[in-house]
């Protein structure tokens, strides 16, 4: 089982739709979690951190479920500009210096 | 602050040529990373440096060498480029080993013919 798994998609949704992605991780001791956004041929950029209590930033909501070992990203009222690949990143514990990336979920928002 | 600066942005090499990708960060970060990204493969770690003076292999180190020249700079060298090294390369850094987000350079698109 890969350490961090994501459904590659693509998720193809109309403008205004609500869409959710999940990301599962295998290391139960993982300490911190992030969602990054990557546009085609560009560098990944931090979208939001994921906190245990869940957190919201405008149309974006991130949640962590430690018991089931997954994080989620919910996008409400999708915009054309939300089209991108969304990467899940997990920081393990135990002194590891290596953040672990999922392969990303592709989102296409169409008119 | 420039953040993470990576050069060059594009490079075309012939098989067997060598080159060095440069990366510098001005955020006083301890840890620096080199990734490659290929279609359908996601980001794969080549080498990393947890702190100045240390380097370690990642998932795909073969064919590469690195140097952590000082706290700011972390370079990636291809001694004898191969077509399999055609990829997009990203440098990244972060403040400490735990709980911190990564900052990425803008990437180098490398083609080896």
Account of the 3D structure:
The complex is a heterodimer of chains A (111) and B (113). Chain A is mainly β. Helix content of chain A is 0%, strand content 52%. Chain A is built from no helices and eleven strands. In chain A, strands 2, 4, 5, 9, 10 and 11 form a six-stranded mixed β-sheet that branches. In chain A, strand 4 (32-38) and strand 5 form a beta hairpin. Chain A is globular and about 45 Å long. The termini of chain A are far apart. In chain B, 0% of the residues lie in helices and 51% in strands. Chain B contains no helices and eleven strands. Chain B has strands at residues 4-7, 10-13, 19-25, 31-38, 42-49, 56-57, 64-68, 74-78, 87-94, 103-104, 108-112. Chains A and B meet through strand 4, strand 5 and strand 9 of A and strand 5, strand 9 and strand 10 of B.
Could you give the order of the helices and strands of chain A?
Answer: EEEEEEEEEEE
Number of distinct beta strands of chain B: 11
**Radius of gyration of chain A from the CA trace?**
14 Å
Proportion of strand residues of chain B: over 45%
Judged by helices, strands and strand pairing, the structural class of chain A is mainly beta
Q: What would the average pLDDT of chain B be, to the nearest integer?
A: 92
Distance between the termini of chain A: 37 Å
User: How many strands, what sense, and barrel or not for the largest sheet of chain A?
Assistant: 6 strands, mixed
Question: Portion of residues in helices of chain B?
Answer: under 10%
Q: What is the average of the pLDDT values of chain A?
A: 92
Q: Which descriptor suits the 3D outline of chain A?
A: globular
Seen as an oligomer or otherwise, the chain set is heterodimer
**Discrete helix count of chain B:** 0
Largest interface: A-B, 25 and 25 residues
Helix content of chain A: under 10%
Radius of gyration over C-alpha positions of chain B, nearest whole angstrom: 13 Å
């Amino acid at each position: 089982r890969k350490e961090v798994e994501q459904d590659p998609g693509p998720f193809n949704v109309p403008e205004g739709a609500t869409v959710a992605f999940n990301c599962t991780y295998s290391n139960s001791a993982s300490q911190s979690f992030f969602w990054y956004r990557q546009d085609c041929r560009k560098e990944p950029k931090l979208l939001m951190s994921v906190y245990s209590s869940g957190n919201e930033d405008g149309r974006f909501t991130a949640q962590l479920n430690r018991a089931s070992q997954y994080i989620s990203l919910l996008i409400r009222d999708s915009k054309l500009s939300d089209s991108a690949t969304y990467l899940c990143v997990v920081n393990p514990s135990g002194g590891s210096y290596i953040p672990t990336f999922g392969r990303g979920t592709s989102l296409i928002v169409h008119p | 602050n420039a953040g993470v600066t990576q050069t060059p942005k594009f490079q075309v090499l012939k098989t067997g040529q060598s080159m060095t990708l440069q990366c510098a960060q001005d955020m006083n970060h301890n840890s620096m990373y080199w990734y490659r990204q290929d279609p359908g493969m996601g980001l794969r770690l080549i080498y990393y440096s947890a702190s100045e003076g240390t380097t370690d292999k990642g998932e795909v180190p073969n064919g590469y060498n690195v140097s952590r020249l000082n706290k700011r700079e972390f370079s990636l060298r291809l001694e004898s480029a191969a077509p399999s090294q055609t990829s997009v390369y990203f440098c990244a850094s972060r403040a400490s080993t735990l709980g911190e987000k990564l900052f990425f350079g803008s990437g180098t698109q490398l083609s080896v013919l």
